[in-house]
Amino acid sequence: MAFKPAKWPRKLRSTEWFGGTSRDHIYHRSWMKNQGLPDDLFDGRPVIGICNTWSQLTPCNAHLRDLAERVKHGIYEAGGFPVEFPVFSTGESTLRPTAMMFRNLASMDVEEAIRGTPLDGVVLLVGCDKTTPSLLMGAASVDIPAIVVTGGPMLNGWFQGERVGSGTHLWKFSEAVKAGEMTQEEFLEAEAAMSRSPGSCNTMGTASTMASMAEALGMALSGNAAIPAVDSRRRVIAHLSGRRIVQMVKDDLKPSDILTREAFENAIRTNGAIGGSTNAVIHLLAIAGRVGIDLSLDDWDKAGRDIPTIVNLMPSGKYLMEEFFYAGGLPVVIKRLGEAGMLNKDAITVSGETMWDQVKDVKNWNEDVILPAEKALTSQGGIAVLKGNLAPNGAVLKPSAASPHLMQHKGRAVVFEDIDDYKAKINDGALDIDETCVMVLKNCGPKGYPGMSEVGNMGLPPKVLKKGITDMVRISDARMSGTAYGTVVLHTSPEAAAGGPLAVVKDGDMIELDVANRSIHLDISEQELSARLAAWKPSHHVPDSGYARLFHDHVQGADTGADFDFLKGCRGSAVPKDSH
Q1: 41: how many CB neighbours lie within 10 A of its CB?
Q2: Cβ atoms of residues 102 and 230 within 8 Å
Q3: pLDDT tens digit string along 89-122?
Q4: pLDDT tens digits along 184-237
Q5: What is the pTM of this model?
Q6: Which DSSP letter does residue 368 get?
Q7: Which residues lie below 8 Å from residue 479, measured CB to CB, with a gap of 6+?
Q8: What does the buried/exposed string (b/e) look like for 340-359 if buried means 16 or more CB atoms within 10 Å of the residue's CB?
């Protein structure tokens, strides 16, 4: 896909604000100059925004101020004018009810901050899992040159001689306490080992997955995804990205040039190869919607179904992001896809090179971390898209994190009407449940929670854990953390709060899961299902006002990305009118 750079020099977008002698131009320049900026910064050179999601309430992003300074060095060196600004930072570990509820709001913040200010290009500084898609969504909607710089993963955690993966071991240790295999004191001691450096999750959780998706889409420099947050090379790539965005502005290389269908196919296949998070499904569907690419759940299954998972990282495998970086990182994975005929090699990237030209000469330095295809964790990785009378619009499952013996299973439903009902019942020894049952959680989708929280990987009941059982089939309209594992069916659409079939499942119903045939089936007749749906009434709380009400009223289903109905494919003018 050949890209033809624009002519340079030319009049840039920022000259609408700064490039003249009228009262309005002087108004814009003079107020900027109160920061001690010299005249020649307003001479028509590219004005580059550094869109920073730094926040101490977003721990994954708490080190981004330093990276912003590195980006500025690169912008100045390349002849640009850097201006840093904050945007809404969505941290999953601290933000209630869930950061996902505010992803769309953050994207709107980014979009309007870019559109309403004199920027010719933007560097998107991201880290925590929702900040990456929200900034990509917002920048794509304005469509000026943009490049992603992620904050990088934490260093490995270690406890009692064992690697500790952020999130993954939180779930594992919590279950071990309930099973009587770990003391509460040991659990508290392990806490100090879980997050021992700046950065995002060190597993292939959603933050690491979305960093990989940004790189696989071509929106970040090659090698960006895996560099640890505290490694000096993280600062180097921030510096180089600052240089590169200036040239992207000169060339007029925009998100719409990079975010093509071929780029999304590359990202889907990469997600399968790395054992990436199920959350990537929702985020890529939403990003695609912003650039007008008709991407669907079916595309996820078609493009990603036969991709072997070759990255041996938690929660699917053994290692953590630190080892992934030392082995060669994502460029090695992308090269493997290209060698196997599974890559759109000519997809353009922010570097100006094709995807293949960037990776063709890289080497794998550890074949126990990035595995040969014949030693893959699973031969059919990716995301399994399931359909049936329980999920007419689809549901998803991550095969690399599931138990093989449960991939075809029939069991009795044990139903929880919402997350509070689950919490009230799950530890009750009288709960009629065993390992053959199917746990069903309702009203945790986009409208139902609201925001679609990461509660789909329901913890198992203690009486099952004490038998040594570590996995059961679980079905919900919720999400789960990319750091989690298990045979968990997620994003069931339509969701229960919207009157989907999940809403009418009853205790004792038999449910059949058949991943190989991509089927999820509720074993009742069509007549019975129709009668239940006709009698159904919503039970979830509808917010009265504010953003929560806007979210509830306008959020779409998980099967289309859970974006707002008024934001998909809508790009307004990049240069608003001057009001002065």
Answers
A1: 17
A2: no
A3: 999 899 999 999 999 999 999 999 999 999 999 9
A4: 999 999 998 888 999 999 999 999 999 999 999 999 999 999 999 999 999 999
A5: 0.95
A6: T
A7: 100, 278, 279, 282, 452, 453, 454, 455, 456, 490, 491, 558
A8: eebbbbebbbbbeebbbebb
